[in-house]
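User: Hi! I'm working on a homework problem where we have to compare a predicted structure to a textbook description. Could you give me the structure for the chain below?
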Amino acid sequence: MIDVRASRLDPPHRSLWRVAPFALALGVIAAARVEAEETAEAAGKRLDFMKRSVGEYVVTPAEGEKPADLIAEPLLRWNNPVSNVPDGTIFLWKDARSRPVAIVQVFILGNTKDLWLHEFQSLTTSPLSVKQGTATTWNPRRGGIAYKPLADAPAPAETKTARLTQMRQIAKRFQFQDDFEGKSRWELRLMTTPLYRYGHDEGDVVDGAIFAYAHGTDPEGLLLLEARRSDKGGALEWHHALAPMTGYALTAKDRDQEVWSIGWRQPPYDLNEPFACIEYHPRP
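Assistant: Happy to help. Predicted structure tokens:
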């Protein structure tokens, strides 16, 4: 006679066969979790390093003026598989009225462990002085942008929310092309969330924003939009400026009409120009 209870029990080797895959799966999950934690820790350390590095600079808008304020947190964290950059950030300095003064991309060069680059662009119409300790790092002798009235644009709206909608629509008018290493041209993607928003109701610039045009998440071209009070009755008008965020050649169009371009700038960069890319070496 067969013992039914005994027949329902697994022999030892079958029990082990069932447990082994479960244990293996737990091991894979645990290993993946450790790897993710290590990756997150490394990313956190890189971010801390990038923040410390830009904190070493003192950016002064013009001779005798108060140094600009660094926004402590990055405006954006990005990478670029096209140029093989695994990690980068963007930081901004602003003046006392919160208007942008200078912007910098901080990134580690692809296929390296410790070659960090700082890519600066002036976002003011005046010269700058930038020091790292007592050494002058970057000293553009002229402004990096030129604002112009924006033609064929609706009057700025009354509310901040409505103006953001308008600015996004205006940003869609513009297209940027990037001539990557002189080998290929890329249509850059508009990032519809501004990198930075500023302005004051009681000031000349009531509202402003910086829009980026990117390779994936890596900004290569910038559009600055401002709703300014005119000299005639205080009515608001749109003004705009265009700027590079790369050394490669760029072309910008407004509704398919070319309105701005800049050629490929290569090292060694002229540190008296509004754009410069330098190797970062920690201050002693």
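For your comparison, note the following. The first helix runs from residue 4 to 7. Confidence is low (pLDDT under 50) at residues 1-19, 23-32. Good luck with the assignment!
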